[in-house]
Design brief:
By secondary structure, the chain is α+β, with helices and mostly antiparallel strands. It folds into 2 domains: 204 residues, no CATH class; 145 residues, no CATH class. Strands 5-6-2-1-8-9 form a 6-stranded mixed sheet, with helices on both faces. Strand 3 and strand 4 form a beta hairpin. Helix 5 packs parallel to helix 11, helix 7 packs antiparallel against helix 11 and helix 8 runs antiparallel to helix 9.
Length: 375
């Protein structure tokens, strides 16, 4: 058994060396605020300097940081790059952009360039179309988070590579649109967030097995496996929801760097536990304890978007619904297949041991990168 574990660990580290630089990706977000008043739509667009550096190389002296002078000297290039990737139209008629200011602001995860500009629309909008494509060509996981204020009140939306264009009826309050946009983001949080997906996989791999006498044995009852998995997923979601809500409502706040490193460490712990039992006892309690940390991962984004309390509660509810749906979809795909092959030695050796070792190794690379800012 020990020999198999060491073989799996070595194989996992080999996978990490090959794929770690590709997978160990810090989430990329930008914040767009639009305020419609009459025929004018005032805009502020906060874009992370680290993302602009990757796309445009603003650090001309290669000092490792972007100075205000370097950003100011490239202002026209930054605006041209960003404005090509954002269009607003009113009732089918395009709204030209007029730049007004450039500032530097701090968000929970670093320094951002704040582009201020105005859309000079031909008339007051009844229907507003927004097309957003920033960084999607180089980072399909990038999210554009929109807060729109207008005659119908405040609403939110999330732009992704698969949903780059959205339409808003200005007479509508946008509550349903904000809710379902948050549901989609919650689903994407599971399926596009590779660290959360690997954490879930580490919890699911032993679901069709049980540990007896220091060895894994296949379960004999599919219903029992389902109950175990649903309990684990629900425990994780409840914990995730608790800390997400506490952080987003500004009850508890943790530094972004600490949270991201902690999430990576929790993935390592969940995977290693499949190789060597560290978290003894009820796996649901372990999933709950580790899930508490994961809720902080998205909370900073909601806080930085600056939503009103009512809007924040609506988005939180939609996001948590989406997380639950995304996890249940992953379970529905994984569990039946795993149950069919659970009796085969290949599943225990390659699936459980090899898979867990690979997950632990990749997450260990993430932890080093996030904790020590290694790039």
């Amino acid at each position: 058994m020990i020999r198999r574990v060491w073989i799996a660990v070595c194989a996992g580290f080999l996978v990490a060396l090959v794929s770690g630089p590709v997978w160990a990706h810090k989430p990329s977000d930008a914040y767009l605020t639009l305020e419609a008043a009459g025929a004018a739509v005032d805009a502020r667009w906060d874009i992370a300097l680290r993302d602009l550096e990757y796309a445009m190389h603003l650090d001309t002296d290669d000092s490792g940081s972007i100075t205000w002078g370097e950003l100011r000297n490239r202002r026209s290039d930054v605006e041209a790059y960003a404005f090509e990737r954002l269009t607003v139209s009113v009732d089918g008629l395009p709204c030209p952009k007029v730049p007004t200011d450039l500032q530097v602001v701090e968000h929970s995860d670093g320094t951002y360039a704040a582009l201020r500009f105005r859309f000079a629309c031909p008339r007051a909008p009844v229907q507003l179309d927004v097309k957003y494509s920033l960084f999607f060509d180089i980072d399909p996981q990038h999210h554009g988070l929109l807060r729109l204020r207008g005659p119908g009140g405040e609403r939110t939306a999330i732009f992704t590579a698969t949903a780059p264009m959205q339409r808003f009826e200005m007479s509508d309050t946008g509550r349903a649109q904000s809710f379902f946009s948050a549901v989609r983001e919650g689903i994407g949080h599971i399926w596009a967030g590779i660290d959360h997906l690997l954490f879930l996989l580490a919890l699911l791999l032993p679901s069709v097995l049980r540990r007896e006498g220091g060895a894994w044995r296949p379960v004999s009852d599919f219903k029992a496996a389902c109950r175990d998995v649903l309990g684990i997923v629900t425990a994780f979601t409840v914990a995730h929801s608790i800390t997400l809500s506490l952080a987003a409502l500004d009850v508890v706040r943790l530094p972004s760097r600490l949270v991201e490193a902690g999430i990576a460490a929790s993935v390592v712990l969940a995977a290693v536990n499949n190789l060597v039992p560290i978290l003894r006892g009820e796996r649901r309690m372990a999933a709950f304890a580790l899930g508490l940390l994961h809720g902080f991962g998205f909370s900073a984004v909601l806080v930085d978007l600056g939503l009103s309390r009512d809007q924040l509660v609506r988005v939180l509810l939609g996001f948590n619904v989406g997380v639950e749906l995304g996890q249940f979809a992953a379970v529905a795909l994984f569990l039946p297949l795993a149950y069919l092959v659970r009796t085969r030695p290949l599943y225990r050796r390659l699936g459980l041991l090899g898979g867990s070792a690979a997950i632990a190794a990749v997450a260990a690379v993430w932890f080093i990168e996030r904790a020590f800012v290694v790039t």
